[in-house]
Write a structure and sequence with these properties.
The protein is α+β, with helices and mostly antiparallel strands and about 180 residues long.
């Protein structure tokens, strides 16, 4: 298929919501992967973007939401604890001062020196200035306080953060508005 460019990115890299057979959200994949799954008969297209993609023999609308043909049993819905996922959970905002437009690091609320662990509830997004101010202390010892208590995200909470203006068709499937 011919790759169409949109703001320098391939249109085939657009995000597509993948639903289980029972319409429960599973994951987000690329449009290229979703088209392959459609072609193999493994998914049904539920919603489309406005874009049309062309191959030498066919033209089809770019999928936005697809549903698996067969139910997949998911063993736990654990979101992997990574730096990228912590930044995404905290919306790239320092959890001490609220700044967004600066480089971020990850901070241990209870420092490792004090037996703080690498867990969803002990790691937060933090700007370099607040990280230096806090040092190896707990927040109240350094005059800082958290904007919100860190929580472990669920799969649906995690996927909800992918929703942008062009993915408004995803909202009902992610319990963000009525169907």
């Amino acid at each position: 298929m011919r790759r169409l460019r949109r703001n320098g990115n391939s249109i085939l890299n657009r995000e597509v919501l993948v639903l289980n057979q029972n319409y429960h959200p599973l994951q987000v994949c690329t449009a290229k992967r979703a088209i392959c799954l459609v072609y193999l008969g493994k998914v049904v297209v539920v919603e489309n973007y406005r874009n049309i993609i062309h191959s030498p023999s066919i033209a089809l609308r770019l999928p936005s939401v697809v549903r698996l043909d067969e139910y997949v049993h998911v063993n736990g819905s654990e979101i992997v604890l990574t730096r990228k996922n912590i930044l995404k959970r905290d919306k790239h905002q320092c959890q001490y001062c609220g700044r967004k437009s600066v480089p971020m690091t990850i901070d241990h609320i209870i420092p490792k020196e004090r037996r703080g662990k690498d867990t969803w509830t002990n790691l937060v997004c933090c700007c370099h200035a607040c990280n230096r101010k806090k040092g190896n202390r707990i927040p109240h010892e350094s005059g800082l306080s958290l904007l919100k208590k860190p929580m472990k995200p669920t799969r649906i909470h995690y996927i909800q953060q992918f929703v942008k203006k062009e993915q408004s068709s995803w909202r009902p499937y992610l319990y963000m508005e009525p169907i």
